[in-house]
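Problem 12. The chain below contains 232 residues. Write out its predicted structure in token notation.
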Amino acid sequence: MYTAQGTINRDALLEEHFPAVRRHALSLQVKLPAGIDLDDLIQAGMVGLLDASQRFDPNAGASFSTFANQRIRGAMIDELRTRDWLPRSVRRNARLLEQQLRKLEQNLGRPAEEREISTAMGISVEEYHRLLQDTNCGHLLPFDEIVAESGEPEAGAGSPPTPFAALVEGEKKHKLVAAIEHLPEREKLLMALYYQEDLNLKEIGAVLGVTESRVCQLHSQAIKRLRARLVD
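Solution.
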């Protein structure tokens, strides 16, 4: 999309790619707590799209569509991460849970069962389930969090990562894949359905034969197992 002078028509680019903003927002919304407003995601995505239109370099080798999609989704995730979802007490209990999981699974040599975890924490299974439910919304898009914590450089307009950055990223992904392999089978399936097949919670519940609430709990538990294993 170019003007008569041979420059990029940024207004036309924005108009053409606005549907992509809404598409990304809807895709994220089905995975997030009910309180997340679709308009807030769209607004953040529009900021990302505008940023993409200003920073895109057509000589860098990547298409604008690819570059814009990265910026749109990245802006939405950044917006979500700026929000403080959990009370301090819940965060404290979530850290305690991860510590107990790490100790238990090191001692047991296998994934700890829910009753074993709740006993180690000194709470009932019902209280443990509530903790999982409360903390689930505090771990939005965990794969993205893991990648961000690895220090992955910001994606440019088609510019390849440095060899060192690629190595670090490869090691992180290798560790994550290995950690997923140690999950109980049902949680492993849940992760595949959620992150690879892009199913929402209701659809995953239908596959597993459980409620959406239970899917949230299992997802939260799986994330905590992964975080416990990924701690150096």
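Discussion. Confidence is low (pLDDT under 50) at residues 1-6, 138-161. Students who got a different answer should revisit the alignment rule from Section 12.3.
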